[in-house]
Fold:
Amino acid sequence: MNDDRQPIDYNIALALEGAAAPRTAKAALVMGRDGTYRSWTFGELRENTVSYAAALGEAGVRQGQRVMLMVRPSMEFVCLTFALFRLGATVILIDPGMGYRNLLRCVGRVRPDSLVAIPLVHLLSRIFPRPFSTVRNRVCVGRPFPGSGPSLRSLEARAPRGETTRFAAGRDDLAAIIFTTGSTGPPKGVRYTHGIFHAQLRLIREYYRIGPGEVDQPCFPLFALFSTALGARAVIPEMNPAKPARVNPRLFVRSILDQGVTYSFGSPAIWEVVSSYCLEHDIVLPVRKILMAGAPVSGALIERVSRIMDPRGEIHTPYGATECLPVASVSGREILAGTWDRTRQGGGVCVGRPLPGIDIRIIRPEDGPIRSWQEAGELPAGEIGEIVVKGPVVTGAYDHDDRETMLAKIRDGGDFWHRMGDMGYLDDQGRLWFCGRKAHRVRTEQGVMYTIPCEAIFNEHPEVLRSALVGVGKEGAQRPVLIVELAEGKKRTDRLVAELRALAATYDLTSSIETFLVHPSFPVDIRHNAKIFRERLALWAGDQLQEQG
Structure:
């Protein structure tokens, strides 16, 4: 008997079309500047997406091409991304905040066929031509100049009217390459399929109950795509997404209040600034859901944020990575009521239970590749090991990087596990506790020390803003060094060092720490402004100790 059913079209551009169909005239995207707003309806987003797809086709962009997209958060960013999905091109997204050296390295590795970008990026590509040597087609989003290629507007005027044929995508067809922050090594390009985007949308819609009627203020541009695809209105905040800790809280809060924002996703660094501002000015936000991710979230921050929103509101701290997001989640209420005290005592940070369809296990850590699941040594509940995950949101490979792919994936029959690069354990309730990055373990003669549990002890000191445990010396015989960044206005004193040493002696897991240093300002990642670059701090600590003799 023949199966006449049509294959499922997984093209993620269909999500925007599905969201737009029943709400053509409703606002889908809002941008604010100096208290004034411009908005686009779902119908206008769809029309612009179709028009941009025709314009890109006129420029020579075709199915299967790799297109580097570098435009500022805007209507153009949203519609160009969906237009490229519609054409069946692969969208390359690189965070410009990673610095031009890392950016050029990423461009050279990913080998784009086309460049769709603002004039400044086209100029950069002419000044440093080698990484862009594979680019055949150019589109300038803005005023063009000789060498930038034609403008998007001129291509729209020349392109044929009417809808272009949409690429019918399979689950495993490549949709995008998104780069990691590079917090523990060079940034890597993660291969996203249309099927993975579909799985992410489903999880966000069903688990966090986000959809039509909601108003989102996403602090990371990519999440504006998810909002509109789910039928929610996206409000692009007036901020530089590459510098979240420098967000202007007055502008951020004003757009939330003006637009009636109901939920927002951002790094803890943003909510530190915004919550302090709201408490200082006695402001309660209309948001009903706040998602914080990108780094461990303290109970103190959750408590502050809960005071600036409706008491019935929800705070969630999703756990994941560029390679797989989200995979676990926990509510702010559960953290404050049941896990934060344990975190403060050195138990690690609870990041919650696996989301539906996600499997999380803990295995014995290995520095090299693990070729099959049979070779992985699964650990029992309560024992710290390497975190591995499996499920529909887990990406399968890094782009043009077989070595890193081999190190990060474990084959399990026809499926695979992703090695998160994180250390942690599962408790007897099935909750995952994060204990730090695998690369940040401190290997002393007495045993292995984990950053997050140890640092929590010292973060309790009222004069400490944050701390970082690093190892100096040869692995297996490293000297544990505790580096602190002090709260504003505080200075290093002999009294402070004595108090930190007394704290260390109070707990078994920190009793071997005898060296304490003060750093003026920790180096942190660009995307979330919260992940500490402990590798750099370890080098700095080594230099400091050498100078001290």
About this structure: The radius of gyration is 24 Å. Residues 108 and 409 are 24 Å apart (CA to CA).
